[in-house]
């Protein structure tokens, strides 16, 4: 699959266009980069099969410069199976900032303000700094985790 190019036909502005998806390794052991694919666009069954094969090959896929809002990310994520519900959605004392299908792992509270370093929500996320597998403890563990970073610090993040 190294450097594999997959062609798909789509329509843009009433014209038939050819979109070429490329998957290239980013590391000798795992991790690939997908280019030539806008995650906001519909994905047909053949393209989905190519993405699943790429995940099976690389374990981690990077899609750079995608302008995904939460709705677009949920649509793309739902192609791979049912979406989980955030565990915080079940807490009566907690107001959600995002949709119940989006796990909010940011440093923002429900009003968009930055959490204090000593806030329990910040403290409980410290373990996430290490490599881990999402939802591995659940009866039906997650097959994939699809992360997005709409805002990043200029360094150290």
From TrEMBL:
Q: Which organism is it from?
A: marine metagenome
Q: Does the keyword Iron apply?
A: yes
Coiled coil ranges: none
Family that this chain belongs to: Belongs to the TfdA dioxygenase family.
Q: Which GO terms describe its molecular function?
A: dioxygenase activity; metal ion binding
* Alphabetic keyword roster: Dioxygenase, Iron, Metal-binding, Oxidoreductase
The cross-references to Pfam families, in alphabetical order and at most eight, read:
TauD
Question: Which InterPro entries does the record cross-reference, listed alphabetically?
Answer: TauD-like_sf, TauD/TfdA-like, TfdA_dioxygenase
Q: What is this protein called?
A: TauD/TfdA-like domain-containing protein
TauD/TfdA-like domain segment(s): 23-157
Q: Does the keyword Oxidoreductase belong to this entry?
A: yes
């Amino acid at each position: 699959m190294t450097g594999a190019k997959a062609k798909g036909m789509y329509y843009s502005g009433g014209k038939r266009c050819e979109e070429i998806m490329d998957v290239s390794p980013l590391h000798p052991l795992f991790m690939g980069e997908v280019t030539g694919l806008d995650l906001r666009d519909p994905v047909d069954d053949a393209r989905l099969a190519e993405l699943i094969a790429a995940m099976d090959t690389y374990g981690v896929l990077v899609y750079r410069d995608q302008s995904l809002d939460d709705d677009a990310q949920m649509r793309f994520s739902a192609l791979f199976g049912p979406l989980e519900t955030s565990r915080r959605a079940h807490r009566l004392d907690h107001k959600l900032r995002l949709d119940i299908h989006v796990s909010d792992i940011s440093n923002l509270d429900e009003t968009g303000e930055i959490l204090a370093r000593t806030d329990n929500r910040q403290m409980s996320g410290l373990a996430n700094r290490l490599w881990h597998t999402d939802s591995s403890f659940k009866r039906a563990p997650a097959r994939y985790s699809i992360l997005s970073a709409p805002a990043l610090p200029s360094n150290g993040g």
